[in-house]
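Instructor's aside before we start: the two examples that follow are unrelated to each other. I chose them only because their records fit on one page, so don't look for a connection. First example below.
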Amino acid sequence: MLRHFGHEVVAAVADAPALLAAVAEHRPDVVVTDVRMPPGFSDEGLQAAIALRAADPDLPVLVLSQYVEQTYAAELLDSGHTAGVGYLLKDRIGDVAEFVDALVRVAAGRTVVDPEVVRQLLGRRRDPLARLTPREREVLALMAEGRSNTAIARTLVVSEAAVAKHIGSLLAKLDLPPDVDDHRRVRAVLAFLRG
């Protein structure tokens, strides 16, 4: 497809290590990668893109994703130098000419971000608490009061399992993944108090 539009494709690879090696060998004008690549199909392509940009901040990189991955998009865009960076949803690149135009803009040093990604990132940055349901807000407010899961369950007249489910959901919505160095409940309470 890219050749049809006059672009030379110097390598097509199947996994992140091969992507890193191909970039080192060919020094391309722009890199296009999927967020998810073998072998784990988690965020290998994104991590490769971030590593490539860390090694060469002027290397243009266009990352494609099946879904809006706010954490991934933020990680790519917050990595410092954002000139020559793109993050597009795959279903938005059905128009080939539009995709090629985005690729050319990224190669020219511009930043291209899918409008849906922008909408969700702006919403997250404005008020991360806005994503919580009313019940999750109640649970978080009780957590801020220092209450245990048992006390929260008693206050809301629900089971402790329901409280644990609400806490897990609100931690995910606040983008607080498990971390050995931080206590997620405390970080959630801090986000609540800031909001």
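Example two begins here.
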Amino acid sequence: MMSEERKRDENLFEDGGPGQLYMSFVIMDDLLDKLKLLNYDKEFCRELKVKFLNRHYFALQTNPGEQFFIFTALSAWLIRTTGRSFETPQEDDDPNSTISNILDVLRNMGAAVDFPPSRLKSGFGTEVIYVLNCLADQALKAVHFGWNKASHPVEDLEEENLIDDSAEVTLEKIEEEMLIEDDDDDDDDDEEGGILDLEGLRNLPLSRTNAAEINKPDDIMESTTDSAEWKLEVEKVLPQLKVTLRPDAKDWRSHIEQMHQHRKDIGESLSVTRNQLDKLHLEITRTLEKIGSREKYLNNQLEQMLLEYRASQDQLAQTKEQYRSVSGGVTERSRILGQITEELEQIKQEMEERGSSMTDGTPLVNVRKALARLKSETAQTDVRIGVAAHTLLRAKLKEKGNLQRAADPLPAAADFDSVF
């Protein structure tokens, strides 16, 4: 069984028909059973304090970060279960290095890894389930797990022929039960229009041993029922015997019928389409051959012109390169010429200003006007100085007179009058 599962896992990525889309769910269910056999709920979930995995955990995308961490941690635990040393990765570890280490261990175990490592970064998908399934198989081998042979219970056929004394019933009890059933059936027959044969119910077997003796007829049974009445009764009961089954969308039988029908339709369409595609293939092949021969003919005819064209292109490229080099020198020289021209214009302007200032008498006139202005300002200043000196002298004399009058009022006043 282990080899069959491994072969099925190795063929996971091959084309398996329409059911291949749901193959990951089937393998995920098998993987969960293997993890339960390895007691992952006690040794892995309780250690990391994570919830138990469901049947679609790695088959559908829920939380890529959490799924990738659970995938790497579960892979490390399975590798350690096989007897190899492997540290549990942390959430901040480099995912590329972690995936590379897991795939290296998987290759050393002999498993085929024919998919890019980047497919494992999402933390879900067929590749993730494939890696975990391979590691789980190796872990089961490491713990020496094996399936025991099935033990079938021995059935005692003699017990079927024994009669339980407590199960014996009397004819009176059976008649009472039949009467009760008769009342119930009469109510049902009134509603549905059916007929119940009470004589046939009373002749039911009482037990497994004496059933044959009670129901054994004395003579050959002959039917006394009229065929017309029988057909009429069948027509009455026929609508009640029809059973309509509602199709279930989740029933695998309906899916299989649909798959077979689709396959049949595809086969019929393919037989018609294949002929058209073959014709189209032949026409395209002939057209391509004609185009190829025409290209060869044109190449042969235009080979000399193509050589000349290539030579002209090479010469044009050389000429463009020379033009770029020459134009670069001209641009540099034009820039230098512009600088020299600006300096020359500035020198010419300075020479003109100096020449005009040497021949013009305006500065001399300005000097004379300045001297006259200075003389007038000097005369005004002298007058102001004289007025200020006179005012000061008068103030001193007045102060002196005040001092004398304070010392000797009368003579001082006479002297003051004689002075003025």
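The mean pLDDT is 76.
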